[in-house]
Amino acid sequence: MDGPLRNIPGGHGGTRSYPWDVTAKEKLRRAIEALSETEAKEALDYIVRRRERDPLVELLDNAPEDDEPTTPEEEEGVREAKAEVERGEVFSAEEIKRELT
Question: Three-class SS of residue 79?
């Protein structure tokens, strides 16, 4: 056989080797064929949910929590920003859009 063997999922945790390069979609098709009907339904539900989600929201939801301690300068910046909001020293999104266009 020419070329290296490629391992792809073969269902139930195993793999199958094919002596040719295959695309990701072809690997997916073959993996799907090895799924039970229940596994296929779960995979389809997962794909549908992924396609309906906003990628930015997904990224933010899955981002690691910031566990770095804040610096005194950052804490002061937060206090200043909150004070500006309380004094009404803010711009709405519409005001910013008008200013920029």
Answer: helix
